[in-house]
Amino acid sequence: MSSDKRSVATDALETLGTIISENEKRDAIHLAVEPVIAAHLLQPGDDVGLLPDGTASTDGVKLVGIVDPFLKEPVGEGEHFWLVVYPRQITSLRHVWEHPDFPVSIDAAPAPQYSASEQWIRNFADSVSLHYDVLMEGAHDWVDSRKRGSWGEYLCFGGLLEGESVPDEFWPHYEVVTGQKVGEDHRGSFFTCSC
Questions:
Q1: Whether residues 121 and 83 fall in one domain
Q2: Which residues lie across from 85 on neighbouring strands?
């Protein structure tokens, strides 16, 4: 019988990224990873964040993680790689498994309407050169600020969004994906440019 009295929760994740004491024991951890594209040459382990177009960069971005530290060579501009999110930053982590002798999990099979709406938003984001997550966060901030009675929080990335606007058909898709009803007076275009 093992003398290790640790709980099921991992200890290593609590101390990852710090100098550890001699009392730590062997452990296993889960880290969040996101497939991304390099905006420019990146080295394994580089601290990176996402540009408005969703590509990963070391320059002028909020740093959210590192380039896959297990790579043996640099990541070239335009190449795909795993961004490893900093430990203790994610707000939700779940595992959904499948097995041929069990019915497909409800969590593993997205509803067709959700998939279609998410895809519509992804296509729209691509059409205006924004990353899906940036667009959705911008929409959330817009709705939230309108609910508070302000004019709204706009997305502005220099001249990137010049001449672009959020179409009315965006909002029903946003409601499906988020599960939140958005009042007519809280809708609108949240794009602007610094022109």
A1: no
A2: 65
